[in-house]
Design brief:
heterodimer; A: about 375 residues; alpha/beta; 4-stranded mixed sheet; 14 helices; 5 strands; about 65% helix; B: about 375 residues; abc type-2 transporter like fold; 2 domains; 15 helices; elongated
Chain lengths: ~375, ~375
């Protein structure tokens, strides 16, 4: 037992030395973690506020109130005032989603009680943004009429929200991105460490060692896990300070991240032992990370996308990790399962990942 | 020329004999394609339950407005108890109730359409709010519905409504480009980036790491000829992957530009491949260790791809991000290709091509010098 512990410790120290000699690799791991925050932020930035030209040919106070309603229409438009010719050119260049033109005489006509057609030109190249514009303009018109207190409107929407506050899209995304970070950083570092043993031929030597041959590898993975955890904690600090997302429950975040590191380090061990090449592991883990991430409730509760996709999501630990992390950071329940069950499932995944990694290694080295 | 061609063929065969390197280059774009497929399923329609408690014509009219808008709602019409369960179990994101007494309230202009919304994040919550607001507006102003937006006032036919505003919508193109077709192009660009960048980077790094660069330097061929051979090999490797993908996309109709746009589209792909090969050669010769190169190449490809508008439209981002995006060559590739595929003319494509070609020349120049230096340092 003492010998095995010494072998684990020696493996951990050897990996630390190895990583110290590869500062670029460690630096790239941290950069990779931050990269995903940037990536999801970019995605989040285009999730709302379609760039829209506003051509106001009227200039009346009524037109100004209509513009106010457009601006307030559920984060729908990033309005840019411009003349008609520029707006048309920009629309045809693909820089705008739509051009809304308030015609001359708009204010007077509304005062008279006439119905004024407002020209809306849409670049319907992207169905998602086109849908947003087509739904947002009537929303703005309804708000405008309410604002003016126009008579004759028989029906109004009455909304009751389940959550007491609206969570912005980017703060939501960056928390789920922490799970993606854990997958990529912990997975890649552990996989490279294990694959190196096979590539360098030291795996054969380990099989001949007087202690259990997996002990030194376990030590190496402990080190890569520790480095991954530090990278994740740095990323989390960036989320708290840079994105201003203070956690509702920091202990839960820490537990979630630690479980993720264990799970994905073990996944990395299994991948490294199966592939036995350092070269493809980064691309492999990165490639599988994106679809797993999207199918995990990263953008919205996964069940909203239908039971098939939701069912598939259960086959990935990222689903449970996102459930735990969103609850810890925002107090949001994004899985139908209670959070304690998500946490339990996460620990279950960790145990399973350890067992699978151990088994794969044993077959590759000992057997 | 013969030496260049031989080295190119050697690199290509090395590439073919390194299945893991090929897999490394192919997995990220395949992952991206899978991601797009998943995203496509979650775009556009919102899962909503409808409970009709009101009786009478107005309640039926309101229910019909919601039921026929199949492009906006993934609707489940049910009773209140089931709707509450669906909402709790996250099978729907919102419950819309046409309440009892709706008919009388409509007469008194005090009718309300109740919606309970699971507003976990504003992205999809706002989608539902906008969708429901349009349905409500449509009740008093049918022309504010999607058919009215497209077919009424824009044709000169305006029906008076109590909101006093109608929408005269005109679309730039006859059909909407669906999300998958809009995004498949960036997946192809990622394929080019991934194979060109990672392929050339790994070939360059391998020569240094394995010491074969020494033999190359001693070969009776000018070092510039060898460098040219390396780039040609990287390009061929990219084309081996890109051409079948392009053919497949064309045959299946995923990409279908106007016939006269093909030359510009192919030129953009070629320039992008050259750019990727140049950047890859620089990276590989500079970093030199294959496993670090693989990670660095994947990060560089990610930044080039995402800051270049691979997942977004750069023109739709805030000013400061557009400024950064202006320095990313892939932005010009994606914008130019979108122009070729989705727009009737080639406005701006010449500029995009010029920027890409200049960047490719620069990247190849820097890459050539770096590769040559890395070989010289071996001797």
């Amino acid at each position: 037992m003492k010998a095995a512990a010494a072998a684990v410790w020696a493996g951990a120290r050897a990996e630390a030395v190895q990583l110290r000699r590869s500062p670029l690799l460690v630096m790239l791991a941290v950069i990779q973690a931050v990269t995903f925050l940037v990536l999801v932020s970019l995605f989040g930035l285009t999730g709302s506020r379609a760039p829209t030209a506003l051509v106001d040919l009227d200039g009346s106070d009524i037109a100004a109130r209509f513009v106010g309603s457009l601006s307030a229409a559920h984060h729908s438009f990033a309005l840019q005032r411009m003349d008609a010719r520029t707006a048309d050119a920009e629309l045809h260049r693909g820089s705008l989603v739509a051009v809304i033109t308030i015609p001359r005489g708009f204010g007077d006509a509304v005062r008279r009680g006439d119905t004024v057609p407002v020209p809306v030109a849409v670049d319907n190249v992207d169905a998602d943004l086109t849908d947003d514009v087509q739904r947002a303009v009537p929303t703005a018109i309804a708000a405008f009429a309410r604002d003016l207190g126009l008579p004759g409107i028989r029906l109004h929407p009455a909304e009751l929200d389940l959550v007491g506050h609206d969570t912005d899209f980017i703060p939501y995304l960056v928390i789920s991105a922490l799970a993606l970070d854990a997958l990529v950083v912990a997975g890649v570092l552990a996989a490279i460490s294990v694959a190196r043993e096979f590539e360098g031929g030291t795996a054969r030597v380990l099989a001949l060692s007087p202690v259990h041959p997996l002990a030194p590898i376990a030590g190496r993975v402990v080190t890569t896990g520790a480095v991954s955890l530090v990278a994740l904690l740095l990323t989390w600090v960036l989320v708290v300070v840079g994105y201003r997302v203070p956690p509702v429950n920091p202990v839960e975040i820490l537990a979630g991240l630690a479980a993720c590191v264990v799970i994905f380090s073990c996944v990395g061990v299994a991948v490294g032992a199966l592939i036995r090449r350092t070269l493809p592991v980064t691309a492999l883990i990165f490639g599988i990370a994106l679809p797993l991430y999207i199918d995990s409730g990263a953008l919205e509760p996964e069940r909203f996308d239908g039971n098939l996709i939701w069912g598939l999501a259960h086959t990935s630990p990222v689903y449970y990790a996102v459930g735990v992390l969103e609850d810890a950071a925002h107090g949001l329940r994004v899985t139908p399962e209670p959070v304690w069950l998500d946490m339990l499932a996460l620990f279950g995944w960790a145990a399973l990942a350890v067992a699978v990694a151990w088994n794969v290694l044993r077959r590759r080295i000992v057997a | 020329m013969r030496a260049i061609w031989r080295l190119a063929r050697l690199d290509l065969s090395l590439w073919r004999r390194s299945p893991w390197a090929v897999v490394s280059a192919l997995i990220p774009p395949l992952g991206m394609a899978l991601l797009l497929a998943v995203l496509t399923l979650s775009v556009g329609r919102q899962p909503v339950a409808l409970v009709v408690e009101g009786t009478g014509q107005s309640a039926r009219d309101m229910a019909q407005i919601i039921e026929i808008d199949t492009e906006a709602y993934a609707l489940t019409v049910t009773d209140a108890a089931t709707a509450a369960r669906l909402l709790h179990d996250q099978e729907v994101a919102g419950v819309v109730v046409i309440p009892a007494g709706f008919e009388a309230a409509v007469v008194h202009h005090t009718a309300a359409l109740d919606m309970t919304l699971n507003n976990i994040d504003i992205d999809f919550a706002d989608d539902i709010r906008r969708t429901l607001a349009r349905s409500v507006a449509e009740f008093d102003a049918p022309q504010l519905g999607i058919q009215g937006e497209l077919g009424g006032p824009s044709q000169g036919f305006v029906m008076p409504n109590p909101y006093r505003v109608a929408i005269a919508e005109t679309n730039l193109r006859r059909t909407n480009v669906d999300f998958l077709r809009y995004q498949v192009l960036p997946a192809l660009v990622l394929l080019v980036l991934s194979t060109g960048l990672m392929g050339t980077a790994l070939l360059s790094a391998r020569d240094v790491e394995r010491g074969t660069a020494r033999h190359l330097v001693l070969a009776p061929v000018s070092s510039w000829g060898l460098v040219a051979g390396r780039f040609t090999g990287g390009l061929l490797a990219s084309f081996v992957v890109l051409v079948p993908a392009l053919v497949l996309s064309t045959v299946t109709g995923v990409i279908s530009p106007p016939p006269d746009h093909w030359p510009a589209l192919l030129a953009l792909f070629a320039a992008t491949t050259l750019c990727a090969a140049g950047i890859g050669a620089t990276l590989g010769a500079w970093i030199r260790r294959a496993r670090t190169v693989a990670m660095a190449a994947s990060i560089v490809a990610t930044y080039l791809f995402f800051l270049g508008g691979g997942f977004t439209t750069i023109a739709f981002l805030p000013e400061w991000l557009r400024t950064i995006g202006a320095a990313i060559p892939i932005r010009y590739a994606i914008e130019g290709m979108r122009q070729c595929l989705f727009y009737p003319d080639l406005t701006g494509v010449a500029t995009d091509l010029a920027v890409l070609t200049t960047t490719a020349v620069l990247a190849i120049g820097v890459g050539a010098v770096t590769v040559r230096r890395s070989w010289s340092n071996m001797t």
